[in-house]
Amino acid sequence: MATLLPLLVFLSIIFNPATARLQSKEESFISAGISEKGLNFVKDLLIEKAVKTLTPLRLPDIEKNVKIPVVGGVHMAASNITLLSIDVSSSTAQPGESGIAIVASGATANLSMDWRYSYRTWLVPVEISDEGGAFVQVEGLEVGLTVSMDNQNGILELTVMECGCYVKDMVISLDGVASWFYQGFVNAFEDQIRSAVESAITKNIIKGALKLDSLLQTLPKEIHVDDDVALNATVINDPLFGNSSVELDINGLFVSYEKVSAPSYLHKYSQSSISCGEALKMLWISLDEAVFNSASMVYFQAGLMHWIVDKVPDQSLLNTASWKFIIPQLYRKYPNDDMLLNISLTSPPVIRITPQNIGSIIFSDMIVHVLDAGESIPVACISLVVSVSGVVEISGNNLTGRAELDDFTLNLKWSKVGNFHMYLIQGVMRVFLNTVFVPYVNMHLKQGFPLPIIHGFTLQNASIFTSSSNMVVCSDVAYTNFSGAVHSSF
Ligand SMILES: *[C@@H]1O[C@H](CO)[C@@H](O)[C@H](O)[C@H]1NC(C)=O
Ligand SMILES: *[C@@H]1O[C@H](CO)[C@@H](O)[C@H](O)[C@H]1NC(C)=O
Ligand SMILES: *[C@@H]1O[C@H](CO)[C@@H](O)[C@H](O)[C@H]1NC(C)=O
Ligand SMILES: *[C@@H]1O[C@H](CO)[C@@H](O)[C@H](O)[C@H]1NC(C)=O
Ligand SMILES: *[C@@H]1O[C@H](CO)[C@@H](O)[C@H](O)[C@H]1NC(C)=O
Ligand SMILES: *[C@@H]1O[C@H](CO)[C@@H](O)[C@H](O)[C@H]1NC(C)=O
Ligand SMILES: *[C@@H]1O[C@H](CO)[C@@H](O)[C@H](O)[C@H]1NC(C)=O
Ligand SMILES: *[C@@H]1O[C@H](CO)[C@@H](O)[C@H](O)[C@H]1NC(C)=O
């Protein structure tokens, strides 16, 4: 611990003095935070990757002419110096003003190398030489890395602010050599091996961090949802580094691929405090109600909220014969004709999040068509207002949902087959909504949309909390793989 302290002090002074967080005019509708537990998870993952890429590692050869008492000038060389293994026993990840410091301390490492020497003396006219192998045990290896992260045009940029490596102690073993050589070799080479190890580790960690930066650069500004819409993942503001957590804000609204017009009239309703309660999770993702309403708007604007129903569980209901007594004119005009329903939403469903649930009121027009002599004839239009409420769930990295029918009202807008009372079709309508309408809505909600999670990580054991106009997903994550292109590099 005593040797770790200077390194920590050194790392902490390079954090910028408290700078005010750059606030942009743009609003963020999705925020994500990584807790101390999450930071430790990522740190362990990075250290594991770093150790994998660092071993084995070939260090530069060293050659020297060394003056040995009695013997005289001796040419010595260490070659094929190879870092074989590193064992990190403890490490920390500490957020600061503008970045994160990762410190691995008390690590040990093993190296192997070949040694060689040669010299001439006036005693013997030929060159005397020998060679063999050696083993080096490094103890008290400390590595510190400080990276800062900031927002560069909506993308996170990672910069290495400081990287250092310190070898406290090393034991060089050369078996079966004369003690004059052993001592001479250690005296002449120890410091150089030490600094070779220190600089090789530093160099490679910086290289790894830069690869991590290129991974961040590949994160898309828009997350593809389907052929029509995407989620705007543009980073807003610089990441906020807390005492033990990091917070990141993204735009978070749905955008349509066709019409670039963002629904600018959406605003964050409340700045409700984000809380995962007692749950100690690696990360939280907070979604404002506006995220869901933007989805609703872009799908509506894309003209995707139309639906033709020509199949129902009780198919006889889609024949005028079934309506003989309720709507006599319909049957008289179009006896025994099949029917279909053309349902169109008349406005984007408004989604409301409350501490209890998520609900929506769906305004739609249902045009009843009769299929007569190969023609589709609209005969009546019923305005249908359906209120649903539901729960949200996590499936993979998708936020999905399930809705249930709460209530509905019917109104006859126009009719070519005379007036008929809505209360007469109320019962049939309830069955229809429960067996056709709600299952259809759920079929779409079931797939959900992907949450902004870095490729290779999957949510585990997530729980969802709702508050007024806001929802928080609290979850642990598991690592599966970095994205293909950069997988091998870090
Ligand atoms: C160099 O050292 C490594 C690790 O000990 C060993 O696998 C490799 O064979 C050595 N190379 C030569 C050329 O001796
Ligand atoms: C280094 O080698 C020693 C002896 O073979 C072994 O006990 C130790 O676990 C090794 N350390 C690492 C970091 O591999
Ligand atoms: C962060 O730590 C500082 C000093 O330890 C403390 O004064 C401050 O209240 C902490 N802030 C938060 C948000 O915990
Ligand atoms: C995505 O969000 C950014 C930041 O809020 C905004 O500048 C940009 O216009 C948005 N993109 C679209 C397509 O709406
Ligand atoms: C269904 O209704 C919508 C809106 O009234 C209309 O634009 C569309 O053409 C209709 N589709 C069919 C197949 O009648
Ligand atoms: C997640 O959502 C996307 C886009 O809607 C979809 O393509 C994908 O199949 C979904 N994945 C899961 C596990 O539901
Ligand atoms: C999931 O989280 C709950 C509470 O946070 C915990 O009790 C449970 O053991 C966790 N399950 C797994 C598989 O981690
Ligand atoms: C990780 O991704 C790479 C490239 O796509 C693939 O070759 C490799 O098998 C994957 N590894 C795992 C454990 O999924």
TrEMBL record:
Any one Gene Ontology cellular component term annotated for this protein: extracellular space
Coiled-coil intervals, chain numbering: none
Top-level taxonomic group: Eukaryota
Domain Lipid-binding serum glycoprotein N-terminal: 33-259
Database matches in SMART domains: BPI1 (SM00328), BPI2 (SM00329)
GO MF: lipid binding
Lipid-binding serum glycoprotein C-terminal domain sequence ranges: 277-475
Record keywords, A-Z: Glycoprotein, Signal
First and last residue of the signal peptide: 1-20
UniProt cross-references to Pfam families, sorted A to Z: LBP_BPI_CETP, LBP_BPI_CETP_C
Record's protein name: BPI/LBP family protein At1g04970 isoform X1
Upper lineage: Eukaryota, Viridiplantae, Streptophyta, Embryophyta, Tracheophyta
